[in-house]
Amino acid sequence: MRLGLMLGYWGAQPNDPIDLVREAEQLGYDSAWFAEAYGSDVFSPLCWVGARTSRIKLGTAVMQISARTPACVAMTAATIDHLSKGRLILGMGVSGPQVVEGWYGQPFPKPLARTREFVEIVRKILRREEPVEYAGKHYPLPVPGGTGLGKPLTLIVHPLRSHIPIYLGAEGPKNVALAAEIADGWLPLFVSPFRFGIFEEPLRGMKDGFEIAATVVVNINNDIAQALMPIKASLAFYMGGMGAPQQNFHVNLLGRMGFGEPVARIQELFLSGRRAEAIAAVPDEIADEISLVGPPERIRERLGPWLESPVTTLIAGTQDPAVLRLLAEELL
Description:
By secondary structure, this protein is α/β, with parallel strands linked by helices. It is built from twelve helices and ten strands. The chain has one domain (2-221, 292-331): Luciferase-like domain (TIM Barrel, Alpha-Beta Barrel).
């Protein structure tokens, strides 16, 4: 199993994480990842650390496809991949209707079809085999209407790699199945090594070499209850604040994992403004299964189920160099 470092949203802790990334690189970590929502963008901090490292791969987990056109993403990916000497992993996802329609001003319907078209166009541009034309419903090129002067074009830059790895962030069964079909890897969120059976059917179509890079919060603390608190707070926020009451992909995922009843209560409490109660309502079992917390010996013991799972890269969510060293000692 490879190790990655999840740096999350830069705006959550607006500092320079380069010392942590360099520590990870020195220890042999395979990748470092940033995220975006509606604060810091995902590419700027990635370039910031990429310019001051030399080996560690640079991942987006995840870039929101509604924020950019496929051509913009292909141009950005080709540029960063050149500058970093072939280290980019392009993780992307659809986000949710609240962000897509409320923030980016784009329609959310047909997320699977939009994702398929997006990936196809990005890959077509990077292959640079011919001027790009695409007769899609969501991203037609050249766009119909307008002046009528649109012209099929070819990327001016010759990509360092004509195939930059694309991973999809996905939670629903159809979206996970799409990742297995068209992508090079899958970026799951809130995954438990004890409940991977729910993904067996969606992942049936994955190809040889398909990567599963799972983000796992890791927290060294002798007080397990205290160590679980940030995970429980994050879960409560995602159950209540990262999705509409009638459509929340994270709620649906936890329901399929067998936690439907407590998750419904968490969502209800959070949306009614009772956030502290919502956090307290998160069962320890949920938070513990999707994370690695406790004293070092407990974390070592609980690494076992992850090693036996289909996960190929464990992306550690941490700001603690001691966590980086502990995982490296055990896995690298």
